[in-house]
Amino acid sequence: MANQSKKQNQNQNQNQNQNQNQNQNQNQNQNQNHCHNQNSNKNTDEDFNLRETTPSLGSGRIARNDRAGTAFDLVEQMDYLYIKVVKARELQGNPSPFVELKLGGLISTTRHMENTSIPEWNQVFSILKDRIEATLIEISVKDKAKGNDLIGTISFDAIDVPRRVPPDSPLAPEWHRLVNKKREKIAMELMLAIWMGTQADEAFPEAWDLDATSVNGDGLGSIRSKVYLSPRLWYLRVNVIEAQELQIGEKNRQQPEIFIRVTIGNMILQTKISQSKNVNPLWNEDLMFAVAEPFDEHLVLSVEERTAPCKDENLGTVTIPLQEVDKRLDFRPPVSKWYHLGKHSNSDKNANVLKSRVHLRISLDGGYHVLDELTHYSSDLRATARQLWKPPIGVLELGILSAQNLTPTKTANGNGKGSTDAYCVAKYGQKWIRTRTILNSVNPKWNEQYTWEVFDPCTVITICVFDNSKLQAPNSNNKDSRIGKVRIRLSTLETGRVYTHLYPLIVLTPSGITKTGEIQLAVRFSCASLLNMMMMYSQPLLPDLHYLHPLSCHQIEILRHQATQIICKRMSRAEPPLRREVVEYILDVGSNMWSVRRSKANHYRIAIILSALVKFVKWFDQIRSWKNPLVTILVHILFLAFVCSPWMISSTVFLCLFLIGAWNYRGRPRHPPYMDVRLSQADAAHGHELEEEFDTFPTSLTQVDAMKMRYDRLRAIASRVQTVLGDLATQGERCYNLVSWRDPRATALFLMFCLIASVVLYVTPPKAVAAVMGFYGMRHPRFRDRLPGCPTNFLRRLPAKTDGLL
Length: 806
Description:
Immunoglobulin-like, five-stranded mixed β-sheet, about 30% helix, about 30% strand
């Protein structure tokens, strides 16, 4: 038995040793996994970081310094071969001519002219010098009507092309005699000009890309760079006052429910049902719209009567052209007018004039700034009326250099290799710019420079990168893919300095966060007068009317939606159009929708702000706990000095703030802000949270279980928020009930304490009271009770309105 027990003990010891070894191995694996996760997170952070670069800007003239700049000094100089085809003459037989340009394997054509012997094209073609693979330039005139039959041709050597350096005068085109198929000279002549230039050439924005060999004529317009202007937006205020002598359908109807519906384009608003339920209803209600110049739309106002829950009867209509509406710069009441109502008959389109009329006060309010962007991302804060504008305070220059390692979005020419047709769009103020589309390249180089006037330094420029989906399928409904977005706040930039950085391009999708590449930008903010710019910090952010007669948050959201719809519609009518998905992405449409990720990000932002207060409380707790007696004694001495000399408190506080700011100067930010993945909580977002964030509104989800999960999660989050808000309300109600006699005994005790405290404070010097309170709060833990104090216990016992809640 003893031997068996010894064997059992040995087996148990062996099992324990094996378990300990297994636990050690598990701990080692966990430590290794933890280290691996830390390293992977570190690598992830490095991938999403901003990187400073040192490009050779302006052909070496400026490279990240503060010297005075010249035109196109924020981009790298790129050499282009330009070919300008002007016109032809002496064509025989009224053909349908067009010009074909061939340079090695690159072929491009002009538009063809119908039945003319003296066609005029006035088209410019360009090709990057580095993409030239042959020296022979062949320019041919062909007949579209005869199956692209050759009429005449001419050849040039690319080596002998003259070079033009801006701002030289434009190169004058010349007439050139053509040769036929037999290499014989013919009477037909072609006027053209060929030269070598840079992207600073005035022909660059309108030049067609000679490298667009796989693009048909319908997509070529979207390749060139363009500048767009947002329409000038106004707020239209319709003050519906009253109506008179309305003709009710049923004469015996008592208390009719009458309201007014106002329509402008596809925007519809309506008043509340009039409280005076008779044939002379009264409203005195304002309806606000966002409209754009030129005012080619009409304001349609109709008086409606609610006859059933889902049925309305029209009592009369009036149409008012917006061009006849008065403009005002302040809030002086405009002249009110009576408008006679008309009613359309079913038999004809003519309106029958009624005796009914409506009293309106209509105005275009130019003293507001029409918000089309989020307020904290606004690029323009000026009022609509030009009379209220102030002179610009500076100039913003942006050089869009290149991009690296873009994510392929399509297959190039069916060869199985991924490619991207990337272009950039930037918006600041009313000016939008669109760069050239670089075909079939994941490392495109644009090197285009643009300039904006700056009226307020506390504004933001937005730069976005997209993939052009119209080139391979011009007639499709495919949307341009988002590649990434960059925002730069001008107030974070030093004036006169050139910032050259590689910004990470980040896209959030339902599958998670993705880095789609990097974009290289050069930014410079220059101010004409430092004093004028510093004065801007003392002025209101928005025009005065936003503060004297503010709009409600609900009105601002509706008007912003209307403004974005107007801009999308106008931009889509440009040539080439700036598509709706591009405009909405830049204007952050839908960014105010519910998102668990954004809620977490805002929670952590608040936690970071309150962390300073938490640190102070912890530090004071260490002082009260006498963990470091020397520091605690020094704090007591400093506190006693403040009690004896209270006038030193404010000066000491400001001196400390000055010293903290001066100390932080060494670690000041040297780079512009950029998209922070960790701050946005994008790296920690779960898949179901992202699916909910990208869901449409109303939801397009049909799975019941997923809907229940989202709803339950929202209820859980809302319950925590509800609890916190309830606790805050409870504490406030308890403080109010100190003197409300809701609890007679508690109120009596508090009033007795107030009476005694008033007497004591009257006869006791304030310094003594402050010293006693301070030393009592910092007393040694040996003399302190760990239980809550009397004031805390008294406050917690007070009643609140929670007793009346269901």
